[in-house]
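Final report, Chapter 2: Outcomes

The project's central promise was a pipeline that accepts a single protein chain and returns its three-dimensional structure in a standardized token representation, suitable for archiving and comparison. That pipeline is now operational. To close this chapter, we reproduce one record exactly as it appears in the project archive, with the input sequence first and the structure output second.
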Amino acid sequence: MLGLRKSRNLGARRLQSELLRLHSISLSLASINKVFKKHNVKPVKKFRKKSDFIRYERPIPGDRVQMDTCKIAPGLYQYTSVDDCTRYRVLRIYKRRTAANTLDFIDAVTEEMPFPIQRIQTDRGREFFAVKVQEKLMGLGIKFRPNKPGSPHLNGKVERSQKTDKAEFYATIDTSSEDIDELLAEWQHYYNWDRPHGAHKGKTPMERYLELSEQTPLSEEAYADYQPTKERIQEANYKLDLELARLKRSL
């Protein structure tokens, strides 16, 4: 326990979760804090949020899914999608960030998310702007909503979740393992079904989804709200995209 606390700077609640996940050891928070007190372990330093901080999230599962990629190791990239409302996630590992892998990942996301997806939000990564990728989203009735350049905070939930992956998952495995896909699938299931989430006051993403399941539209209802005439192929170059959109409106 103390080794995990020292090496990964985990607080009592996260340590409780990791002991259960990694070692099948179940301890109460009170017991963990007693051990901390006995060994004079200092509490994890927390940064105060601004007093006017307001947590922004979409009210319905699937209304907006944030998508991103991050480098894990040389020749190893994680594709991540997280539902803005429930924090339900789908993860995959690929050797490269390419349009082909993005297409494959979209298939995984639409199959594994337990609710219909209405829009996908990404950064300006070129792997998301390929024509085939945008056409696939159009065919699925999913709106493509990339962020403006220099706006990483708009994809904050997915970027924060990737930091969690590096601290709580990749820190515990050998990234060169041949079983990395299976290990990642186990981690994804644990994150969605068992890991308590601070934004949900300790509830898991799946528990949050079940709370909102009656308010979540069916696939047919979500698709009926999609307006294909308002969608267009967008350019990764933001200034060029704005100029092309302006010219089309003037025609």
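Archive annotation: The mean pLDDT is 90.
This record, like all others produced under the grant, will remain available to the consortium after the project formally closes.
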